[in-house]
Design brief:
It is a single chain. By secondary structure, the chain is an alpha+beta fold. The chain folds into 2 domains: 53 residues, Thrombin, subunit H (Beta Barrel), CATH 2.40.10.170; 93 residues, Methane Monooxygenase Hydroxylase, Chain G, domain 1 (Up-down Bundle). The protein is globular, with a radius of gyration of 17 Å. The protein has a 5-stranded antiparallel sheet with strand order 4-3-2-1-5. InterPro entries: CarD-like/TRCF_RID (IPR003711), CarD-like/TRCF_RID_sf (IPR036101), CarD-like_C (IPR042215), CarD-like_regulator (IPR052531), CarD_C (IPR048792). This is Transcriptional regulator, CarD family.
Length: 158
Amino acid sequence: MFSIGDKVVYPMHGAGVIEAIEEREVLGEKRHYYVMRLSVGNMRIMIPLTNVEEIGLRQIANKEDINKIIKILQEKKSSLSGNWHRRYRTNLDKMKSGDIFAVAEVVRNLVRRDQEKGLSTGEKKLLESARQILISELVLLQDDRPEQVEDMLSDLFA
C-alpha cells in the first residue's frame, strides 16, 4: 500500500508522485484510486488500488542505483537479435517489466543500434517511450528538471 507523497513507477507510463487517494464511482461501482502525477509531462493517472499488483506499480529506485543505471547506459555491447520483430518484442517485454535497469538497457541498445544502423519507425517510437520512462524516474531520483536529465543522457551517448 502506498501513501500520498510516495514516488512510484507505473510501467509503460513512467514515474510520478501519488497526490491523493480518492473514492470514485465508475459504472455503479465504488472503488479507491491512487491519483498519480507523472514527473514528465505533468499528466495525472488514476490507478485502481485493486489493480496495483497486476499493473506492477512500485517504489522508485534508490539514489544508490543511479551509478548502476549510468554504468548500464555507458556499456558498448548490445546483444540484440538481428531480426527486427524479435528485437522489438524483447525490448517491449523489458519495458513492460517496469524494471529501471531493463529500461536503461532498452535505451542503451536502441541508441547504439540507431548510431550503427538506424532504427525502424516502430523502434524509434519505442526508444522515445523508453527514454521518457527512464527520464521520469531519474528526475525523481536526482531531484532534477527533465531538461537536465535529458542533457545528461545526451552527454552519455555523445
